[in-house]
Amino acid sequence: MSGERNGHVEESTIMIPKVKFTKLFINGEFVDSVSGKTFETIDPRSEEVIGKVAEGDKEDVDLAVKAAREAFDHGPWPRLPGSERRKIMLKFADLIEQNLEELAALDAMDAANLYLLGKIVMINNGIELFRYYAGAADKIHGETLKMSKQLHGYTLLEPIGVVGHIIPWNFPTQMFSMKVAPALAAGCTMVVKPAEQTPLSALFYAHLAKLAGVPDGVLNVVTGYGSTVGAAISSHMDIDMVSFTGSTVTGHRIMQAAATSNLKQVCLELGGKSPFIVFDDVDVDKTAPLALNACLYNQGQICVAGTRVFVQEGIYDKFVGRLLEQLKTWVVGDPFDPNVNQGPQVDKKQYEKVLSYIEVGKKEGATLLTGGKPLDRKGYFIEPTIFTDVTDDMTIAKDEIFGPVMSIMKFKSMEEVIKRANNTKYGLAAGIMTNNLNTANTVSRSIRAGTIWINCYFAFDNDAPVGGYKMSGFGKDMGINALHKYLHVKSIATPIYNSPWL
Fold first, then answer.
1. Overall pTM surpassing 0.90 (yes/no)
2. Where do the DSSP E strands lie in 148-302?
3. Roughly what angle, to the nearest 10 degrees, separates helices 200-212 and 82-98?
C-alpha cells in the first residue's frame, strides 16, 4: 500500500484484516440469503474484490421484519427500563472501542475512508454517539398537562416500532451509529440496510451488538441492493418508519413507497450543494485551507461539502492564489497511508460520474484552474479539481457532484451573496467566513439551510441536530431531536371530580 507525495511513493505498513462477516444478520444469527446469491464488494484502491457478501432480497427483508416485529411486540427490549438499555448500549460502545482498529480498516478498504482519520475521529464519533444516546435512554419522559377542563392529563413517549434504516456508503460507521443508536435508546427494533458498496462494517457491528446483549431480533442487517432490499423496506407493510440518508432521487422513491404502502413515517437526509461564503475581512491564510477541506474531505463524498465557494471581490485573487498554494501539499493516494489527504472515489460508477461532471463544467465555459483528470494508477482516484469563472446557472454550480470538485464564484455585496447562496433546490448546510458579527448574524439567519457554520466547517457535535431544508429532506439526525423522531407521543386523560384546582 502506498500514497504519492510530489512524485514519491511512500509505503504504509497497516495490516489488512481478514473479513469475518459476510452473511445476513437476522434474529441474532448470521444466515445465507434465501436465494443463496452473493455479490462482490470492491476495494476502490485497487478495483479488486474484497469478498462476496450475501445478497438479500424481498424474502430476506420479510424474515428480518418478522424477527423485528416479534422482538418489538413480544420481546424485552421496548419493555426494559431505560437504565437496562443504557447498560447494554454502553457495553456495545465499549466493544466497538476494543475493535476500533479493525473497524477503521474495514471502512478504509470498503469505503476509502482515511484509516488514520477513522481511528482518531470516525470510529470514535460512532462510539460517542452510542454513549450519548445510552445516557438518554433512561430520560425519556412525557409531560403532565394542566388541562382547562376537569381532567387529569399526561403524555407518554413510546417507541415508534419497527424501523428500517437505509444508510449510505460515504461514512459507514458514522451513519450506522447516527441511525441505530437513538433508535435503540428509544426502544425500537430495526432492519438495517447498509449500502451495497460498503456492507462490511455494519455486519461487524451486528456481531458486536449480539456480544453486548442486544436481544435477538432487535437489530437485523440485510445486505443487498437499493432496488431490491431498499425498495422492500420502503414498501413493507409491517415497518413503522424509514430513516434514510442518501440522494434526493432515492428519497422521492422512498416517500412514494411509504405513501402507497402503510403511510409509514419517513425521515430523509438528502443531497446538498452547500455555499462556503468568504467575506473580505477574513485572514486568507487561515480561511483558504478550511475551504479546501470543506470541499475535498472524504474525496468530496459528503452531503454537506462546501462545493460552491463564494469569495468577495476584494480578496478574490489573493484567496485563489492561497488556495492553489495549499493544494500543493494535498496528497492523493492510499487511504491507509497516514500522509494521504484524499483517497479514491467509492466505486467505478461514482468515479465516472465525477469525471463526467468535470467535462460538463469545461463544456459550459467554466475555467479549469487545476486538476480535472484521473490519476494514472489503478483505483478510482481523481485529482482535486477547481473551477473558476463559474456562473450560478452552470450544471457544476447546481448539481450535487459528490466528488473533489470546487466551483469558485466572485461576489460584491452581502445582499447579493445571500440571494445567490439560496438559489439552489438544496438547503443542507452553509459556511460563513467573516470577522464582522453583524454580517455573521444577518447571513446565518438569511440562508435557508439546516446547519450554518460560522468561521468553521464540519463542526458536528452529538448535541447538534443535522438535517435539511427544501430538497435536502426533513427530520433530524444527532441531538435529542433524533431520539424523539423514534418516539410516538400518546396523550392520556381521565376525569377528576371535586378538585379545588383545575
1. yes
2. 151-159, 162-166, 189-193, 219-221, 241-245, 265-269, 275-278
3. 130
Question: What values do phi and psi take at 368, rounded to 5?
Answer: -80, 105
Binning pLDDT at 50, 70 and 90, where does residue 17 land? Answer: confident
Neighbouring residues of 440: CB distance < 8 A, sequence distance ≥ 6 = 432, 434, 454, 455
Averaged over 343-367, what is the pLDDT?
98
Contact at 8 Å (CB) between 49 and 348?
no
Q: Three-class SS of residue 265? A: strand
Dist CA 164 CA 184 (whole Å): 12
| 123-161 confidence digits (pLDDT tens) | 999 999 999 999 999 999 999 998 888 999 999 999 999
pLDDT 10s digits, 219-270 = 999 999 999 999 999 999 999 999 999 999 999 999 999 999 999 999 999 9
CB-based burial, 192-225: b 16+ in 10 Å, e otherwise: bbbbbbbbbbbbbbbbbbbebebbbbbbbbbbbe
Q: How far apart are CA 440 and CA 431, in angstroms?
A: 10
* Cβ-proximal residues to 388 (8 Å cutoff; 6+ apart), any chain: 320, 366, 367, 369, 408
Beta strands in 238-381 (DSSP E): 241-245, 265-269, 275-278, 308-312, 367-370
pLDDT of residue 499: 79
pLDDT of 8 over the 50 cut: no
Q: Is the pLDDT of residue 7 over 50?
A: no
Count of all residues that appear for the chain in the document: 502
Q: Look at residue 426 and tell me whether its pLDDT is greater than 60.
A: yes
Active-site choice (269, 295, 383, 400): 269
Burial 37-51 (b: 16+ CB within 10 A, else e): ebbebbbbbbeeebb
Q: Catalytic annotation on 40?
A: no
What is the chain's percent helix, strand, coil content, to nearest 5? 40, 25, 35
Segments in 297-431 forming alpha helices (H): 316-327, 348-363, 395-398, 414-421
Give phi and psi for 190, each to the nearest 5: -160, 160
Mean local confidence (pLDDT), 433-451: 98
The CB density around residue 141, as the number of other CB atoms within 10 Å, is 10
303 is catalytic: yes
Exactly one of 4, 303, 383, 400 is catalytic; which is it? 303
373-400 burial, b for 16+ CB within 10 Å, e for fewer?
ebeeeebbbbbbbbbbebeeebebbebb
The residues that bridge with 189 in the sheet, in sequence order, are: 162
